[in-house]
Amino acid sequence: MKKQINLEDAQTLAINSLVFLAEDSELLSRFLALTGISADQIRSAANEPGFLAGVLQFYLAHEPTLMRYCEATATDPAVFQEALRLLPGGRQEII
């Protein structure tokens, strides 16, 4: 049975995922390039609606990165999609 997550769990996953990528210079460089923000803007950007959803979308868009995080943290990859739906900016329909 799949564990249900709430908004707080979703936010925690996104924050932990952000910390994980911030600790990896290769991942951080790719994240910054894709988002168009600079490293010194991350802290303020993290307070913007939709930013945490964007972090999860970053992982979901690249399966090797997602799996790297999940293996390192014993996280079920399916939790990312569920968490994304709970976060502001993450409710867009996937076509």
In words, what does this structure look like?
- With about 100 residues, the chain is an all-alpha fold.
- The chain is about 65% helix and about 0% strand.
- The chain has six helices and no strands.
- The chain has helices spanning about 5-20, 25-35, 40-45, 50-60, 65-75, 80-85.
- The chain starts with 6 loop residues before the first helix and ends in a 9-residue tail after the last helix.
- The mean pLDDT is about 90.
Q: Which structural class fits the helix and strand makeup?
A: mainly alpha
Helices and strands, in order, run as HHHHHH
Number of strands: 0
Question: Cα-atom Rg, whole angstroms?
Answer: 13 Å
Low-confidence stretches: none
Fraction of residues in helix: 55-70%
Mean pLDDT: 90
How many strands, what sense, and barrel or not for the largest sheet? none
* Number of helical elements: 6
Please report the distance between the alpha carbons of the first and last residues: 27 Å
Q: Which of globular, elongated, flat, extended, rod-shaped describes the shape?
A: globular
Percent of sequence in beta strands:
under 5%
In summary, what is this structure?
With 95 residues, the protein is mainly alpha-helical. The protein has helices spanning 7-22, 25-35, 42-45, 51-60, 63-73, 78-86.
What layout of secondary structure does this protein have?
Blueprint: H1 7-22, H2 25-35, H3 42-45, H4 51-60, H5 63-73, H6 78-86
Helix pairs in contact: 1-4, 1-6, 4-6
What characteristics describe this protein?
6 helices; mainly alpha; 95 residues; globular
